[in-house]
Amino acid sequence: MLKKKFYLITMCLLFVMLFQGGASASHPYDPKRHIESTHYNSVDEYFCIQEAVSSIDIADAYDRFKEVLYSRNYDGLGNDRIYFLKAGSGDKNCSELSSSELEDVKIRYYIKDDTSSNCGSSSYSCVARAGSVFVDGHYHYDYGMVYLRTKDYTSDHTINHETGHILGLIDGGPNAPYPSSCGQSIMHSKAYGCSTNYANPTADDLESIENEITGD
């Protein structure tokens, strides 16, 4: 009888532990890969777009990115520590901004037919980071550059996936650089062996970023 009671109590405790563990999940995050501005309330995440494709109207491109970035997904995390704003007046390419305007631009999107010179292949979009800043024992970055293939710039998944990299999220999936199982994440894509390309960052993704930017 005592053994049976002990078994039941043990199973109940295990169930509670498993339930609590699943209630607070997060996607793998690398604090060394995000832009520094996400830690500060006083610094907005200005973005600009550079289109190198004559078939794309720059005003339409800005409308598309604002549709994805403004007032949803990552925008507003950490009590507005992440706050996206279009840089400059009017709809300008990054190259048309003044040097003082460009200095404040933390995310720069480049739309190109061929991304091979930046990504090593024209088969995908990618990111690069610049201006390393040493803070709290590791490096952050001043700004990030997202190189989007022309065919990808209308994709919610690709815009959110690559922006997720600038904010510190890392790729996941069986074929990712650091292989993992396919969980619910904007970073787990078909390109890395998963079955779904999520259109928007999931609760796990947002929790990972929130924990980092408010943990200082």
List the helices and strands and how they pair.
Layout: H1 2-23, E1 29-34, E2 45-51, H2 58-69, H3 77-80, E3 84-86, H4 99-103, E4 105-112, H5 116-119, E5 126-135, E6 138-149, H6 156-166, E7 167-169, H7 203-213
Parallel strand pairs: 2-3, 2-4, 4-6
Antiparallel strand pairs: 1-7, 5-6
Structure at a glance:
Helices cover 32% and strands 23% of the residues.
Question: How would you describe this structure to a colleague?
Answer:
Residues 1-25 form the signal peptide. This is Snapalysin. One of its GO terms (molecular function) is metallopeptidase activity. Keywords: Signal. It comes from Brevibacillus aydinogluensis. The protein has 216 residues and is an alpha/beta fold. Helix content is 32%, strand content 23%. It is built from 7 helices and 7 strands, in the order H-E-E-H-H-E-H-E-H-E-E-H-E-H. A 5-stranded mixed β-sheet has the order 3-2-4-6-5. A hairpin with a 2-residue loop joins strand 5 (126-135) and strand 6. The longest helix is centred in the N-terminal third of the chain and has 22 residues, at 2-23. The N and C termini lie far apart (51 Å). The model is unreliable at 1-26 (pLDDT under 50).
